Amino acid sequence: MNSLLQNYALLIGSSESISDLSKKENAKLLVISDSHGNYDSLRRILLLNGESSDALIFCGDGILDLLRLLDEFSKNNEFSKYLPPVIGLVEGNNDEDNYCFGDMRYKIPLANEITVCGKKIFFVHGHRHGLFNGIEGLENAVRTFDVDAVFFGHTHIAVSTIGSRNILYLNPGSCSRPRGGMPTSYCVVKVEKDNPRFDVTFYELLASESKPFIPSDYIASSFF
Question: What digits encode the pLDDT tens for the residues 31-56?
């Protein structure tokens, strides 16, 4: 069960869980963004995927939804198993930078990093990086960083692309308010220590299940 304690790196989980994640041979990441008050969608995604995920990365705009979910699931033994052992979250343009929830006080960073299977992942909401014009702003932001992937949100458009230095740039889309003809979505990323590539699968969230889809099949495939 996730301790719900925020460590010095502003990740939520025990130091042991965070260290274990960095050394695993393979891991499954649940990547979600932009719930915008739609708590029910976020809850359904966790019930479908949380138990089998090694970490949850939330890319902003809905931090209060996420904290409400952490509070509900942590207080119920039936649901606590759906909380991944490590949780990373960043501030969106509709979020605050601090939240008190129960006895916990959380500082919400504008950007953060997590190490998974020896690979470094930078994650950010992206509202300060001109994303509607492409990923150049993000590429500039991480130009001097040693990272293997960048996860972001903000545009509400699902996309996965390889940028300069073979860095993966990934937006899971919005689990509440998709744009550009995209479905309501989230993403699952599988990471292997000895595989330089990330295994990325996007899912459309339906009423009681989810199904894989390919973002390039939709109208907005050329937008970020």
Answer: 999 999 999 999 999 999 999 999 99
**What CA–CA distance (Å, rounded) separates 217 from 199?**
18
* CA neighbor of 138 nearest in space, from 127, 10, 222: 127
**Structure tokens, 83:** 């909380």
User: What CA dihedral angle connects 36, 148, 52 and 68, to 10 degrees?
Assistant: -30
**Radius of gyration of the chain from its Cα atoms, rounded to whole angstroms:** 16
Closest CA relative to residue 98, chosen from 90, 106, 109, 88: 106
Residues in the chain where the model's pLDDT stays below 70? 219-224
Written as one letter, the residue type at 63 is I
pTM to 2 decimals? Answer: 0.96
User: What is the per-residue pLDDT for 205?
Assistant: 97
Paired with 32 in beta bridges are 58
SS3 labels along the chain: CCCCCECCCCCECCHHHHHHHHHCCEEEEEEECCCCCCHHHHHHHHHHHHHHCCEEEECCCCHHHHHHHHHHHHCCCCCHHHCCCEEEECCCCCCCCEEEECCEEEECCCEEEEEECCEEEEEECCCCCCHHHCCHHHHHHCCCCCCCEEECCCCCCCEEEECHHHCEEEECCCCCCCCCCCCCEEEEEEEECCCCCCEEEEEEECCCCEEEECHHHCHHHHCC
First-last CA distance in the chain = 35
